[in-house]
Each structure stands twice: as structure tokens, then as C-alpha cells.
Amino acid sequence: xxxxxxxxxxxxxxxxxxxxxxxxxxxxxxxxxxxxxxxxxxxxxxxxxxxxxxxxxxxxxxxxxxxxxxxxxxxxxxxxxxxxxxxxxxxxxxxxxxx
Length: 99
Hints:
mainly beta; 8-stranded antiparallel barrel
């Protein structure tokens, strides 16, 4: 599972504009831990690893409290996925490995 480990610059295309953050991932079997930090704050993250796909829930507090459903696939140094924001829909996430 070490193929998903690393640091990634990611961008979510949302109604609030491009939301840029840095995602760090350290896998351990079928789970991972890390951080996701950007302009809207930093959060510790943990979730499941299924092949090269990561899934987790992340709490957002700005501009309103909400739980985001994160689904990210890592293919080499490229990240793609979606961020589910409940009734607001789902938004694309893209990025690249930086370390």
C-alpha cells in the first residue's frame, strides 16, 4: 500500500472557488492516517485504503459545519476524486504528488 503514501497538492472545484490544500498520507495495510490543510484550516484525516483508492469523512467548519465524503484515487503521482458535500452535491478533486 506504500504506493499511496506521500504529500499531494490538491484542488477541489467548489461553488466557493478553487479550494487548495496539502494532503499527506501514510498507509498501514487497509487504513491510512494523515492531514489535509489549506486556507480553510487543517484536519487530521484517517480512513480506508482499497487498492489505490482512499475514502474518509472530513469535518468542515467554514463557511458552515458539514461532513465531507472524500473519495480519492492515486495513480502514480496523479490524484483524482470527488468531495461529497451532502445536499450541495459532489465536487471534483485533482492534484499531484509533491513528495
